[in-house]
Design a protein that fits this description.
Length: 267
């Protein structure tokens, strides 16, 4: 089953506080893992953690216990990664949708511009892509006499993306006042493009530091393997050796988590 299909759905209301005729759409801030996915990522996290812990402690019961903990911790981490990846994809797809809408606004009505956008994007994206599902939902809503601005506001709230929320709010205000919708679409495209470019620049700048982080993540394991290979130089199996390793692992993991948080820059 596709990622978008496993998102939690909830009923939404329009700007008047009334429930939309459509069923609740995808909530992009939530991802509901299937039992198979939870099992798969639990086993991945547990196996990796157990292997590393066995290198450090060489006690199977310690490795098994910490492996279970690692598997449990890894599942929500993987869930957050999927949510972030889906939002990045949705942002890019939304930009392409606005480009399509902008190209037809001069010759079509606003409603038809959004309808035609789905046919244009079908060339670029599969039918189960997030933006294709959202355009299908918008088309169904319009057929059910829902207001276009309410459907976009609903999309903006569910997307959990500032760009889409801001566009929906601006569209609603301008559409009701009869303002220039094409200008709003053009401005939104510019803002999203600028944000994407800034994010790409930041990713380029911190790419080296992220690679260093990944190397540092492996170094303690390599270091312990080398020490044990030397044989007898350092007693890592004594009580003092185990305590020292445990403290060192805790300090290292804390430093790694802090550095990851510092380098996570949101624009």
């Amino acid at each position: 089953m596709r990622e978008a299909e496993r998102a939690v759905e909830s009923p939404k209301k329009n700007s008047s506080g009334e429930k939309l005729a459509l069923d609740g759409g995808i909530d992009y801030s939530v991802y509901q893992m299937s039992l198979w996915e939870k099992t798969e990522w639990f086993l991945v996290g547990a196996a990796a953690t157990a292997a590393v812990m066995y290198i450090f402690y060489e006690r199977w019961y310690v490795s098994l216990a910490l492996g279970m903990v690692g598997g449990i911790v890894f599942v929500p981490i993987r869930r957050r990664q999927i949510i972030e990846k889906r939002k990045r994809m949705l942002r890019l797809q939304f930009k392409e949708m606005l480009e399509s809408v902008k190209s037809t606004l001069g010759s079509e009505t606003v409603h038809n511009a959004f309808m035609n956008a789905k046919a244009d994007l079908a060339i670029q994206f599969p039918e189960d892509a997030c933006i294709m599902q959202e355009l299908t939902r918008i088309m169904q809503g319009v057929m059910l006499k829902e207001k276009l601005e309410d459907l976009l506001m609903d999309f903006g709230e569910r997307s959990d993306l500032e760009e889409i929320r801001n566009f929906a709010t601006a569209f609603k205000t301008c559409y009701r006042r009869g303002s220039n919708i094409q200008e709003i679409v053009s401005r939104s495209i510019t803002i999203i493009n600028d944000k994407i470019e800034v994010n790409m620049d930041i990713e380029t700048m911190v790419a080296g530091q992220k690679n260093e982080q990944n190397i540092l993540l492996v170094l303690p394991v390599v270091f312990v393997v080398m020490l044990k290979a030397m044989g007898g130089m350092v007693d890592l199996e004594s009580a003092m050796g185990i305590i020292s390793m445990t403290i060192a692992i805790a300090i290292f993991l804390t430093a790694y988590a802090v550095s990851r948080k510092v380098m996570k820059i949101d624009v």
